[in-house]
Amino acid sequence: MDLSDIFESASRSKIFADRSLLRPDYVPLELPHREKMITSLGRILSPALVGDRPSNVFVYGLTGTGKTAVTRYVTSALADHASKMKTPVPVSVKYINTRENDTSYRVLAEMASGIGIRVPFTGLSVAEVRARLVGALRSITTIYVVVLDEIDAMISRIGDPFLYQITRMNEEIQPSQMSIIGITNDIRLADNLDPRVKSSLNDEQVFFPQYQANELQDILAERAKLAFLPGALEPDVIPFCAAIGAREHGDARRSLDLLRRAGEIAEIRGANRVQRQDVEEARAALENDTIIDSIKSLTLDSRVLLLVLANAKLRGKDKLTSGELYASYENIITNGLKDNALTERRLADLVKSLEMSNLITANLVSEGRGGRTKHISLQIDPSRVIQSLADDPRLGDLAGSVGRDVLAHHEDCGARRWIL
DNA sequence: CGTCCACAGGAATGACGGGCGG
DNA sequence: CCGCCCGTCATTCCTGTGGACG
Fold first, then answer.
1. Could you tell me if A54 and A184 lie in one domain?
2. How many CB atoms lie within 10 A of CB A59?
């Protein structure tokens, strides 16, 4: 088979009609079981069409409950409608993901770009960016609806004073007006906010409950109708994907990912139907992907931490204290990897970020006279860690020897010891 | 009931590369 | 090209702390 055959067969899929409909960022035209949220958000924003500033809104709901899709859908419908019917005041809409744009500078820069102002992505002072944004809004007249997605991520990084600053901008940007839609999956976010921010941002709320399994089925079926070729899905595939998503807090994104990945697996298999078995494999593959991806993005120091934890776990010690971890880490680093090990303080931050990416857990414990420390343990299969680190030229040998040593360890119990 | 362990984690500071405006 | 400011990484110095031990 030559290349053109491969490309040819790939372009004539036996499974997918349009794979892009299953991508996570696709905003569908139909959002089943979200009619209520669509109408309430629409009602909240509708004053924009008659030239009034809509209230600020908080949109609550766990991941994969359709917050982002509904908000994007409603805001873009609002903008379309406004431009079509030539409203007295034009309406502009900007969607900003504050996890990707997680500094005040970048958020302000994105806000500026939403009304056509280009700001260099670094180099100016925050105050300067803000001034340009305000100036631009003042020079035109618009109702500017700004969506701040994953706003909890932003607040934990830059804090709510920034949010307060944004809400206060309204006083300076006349004749323009601005509304903020904050999207969060932290249900209790408002409780921890500065009361002033809370009162101005929390005028209106839209809550997104978890999807039930049967609702997820509807969503998947709706999407599958166009994404897959007729008859490409075994009848139990969609219910199975829905069941998995339902079990994980009613997460539609998760279900859709599974469905797409299962389709890809079936396609690679050369089959023309997706089976339940493909979904099983898709689940394992997706899990593996996120682990590999997060390990790949780590620095040498964090990788060594994982390696130490993997080694300990393979030897039956699944918990290390911060002190033990640091000692082993320092040992490896100074034995030829780098000149200087990081300090304990810095390592504490690395541990924290590893914990954030769910690779490890770190529980604060106090053992009286034994002191106060963290019990740190690997959350993933240690062989995965070793496998992922084996192609790091700096760690390959080390990772390999951990693996070999454990093999040897199993063969003749404890005859050899591999010292970290 | 105070001590004291083994850290946690905040604050201040600095080095550094990127990228502006002038 | 300079001076400035940015975000990021890292260090130094520091105060805080849950609970077993004495």
1. yes
2. 26
| Residue A7 within any structural domain of the chain | no
Please check whether residues A369 and A280 belong to one and the same domain. Answer: no
**C-beta contacts of A378-383 below 8 A and 24+ residues apart:** A378/A306, A378/A309, A378/A310, A378/A313, A378/A318, A380/A291, A382/A309, A382/A310, A382/A311, A382/A313, A382/A314, A383/A310, A383/A314
Q: Over 80: is that where the pLDDT of A143 sits?
A: yes
Residue nearest to nucleotide C17 (CA to C1'): A372
Helix (H) and strand (E) counts for chain A? 17, 8
Q: How many domains does chain A have?
A: 3
Residue A358 predicted with pLDDT over 70: yes
E strand intervals along A302-401? 320-321, 360-366, 372-378
> Does residue A363 lie within 7 Å of nucleic acid chain B, judged by its CB?
no
Q: C1' nearest to CA of A369: which nucleotide?
A: B5
Q: What is the pLDDT of residues A390-410, one digit of tens each?
A: 878 888 777 777 666 555 544
Residue A420: predicted pLDDT = 41
DSSP string, A295-323: HHT--HHHHHHHHHHHHHHHTT---EEHH
Strand B within 7 A of A123 CB = yes
Domain boundaries, position A236: 211-294
pLDDT in tens, A269-315: 888 889 899 999 999 898 888 888 888 888 899 999 999 999 999 98
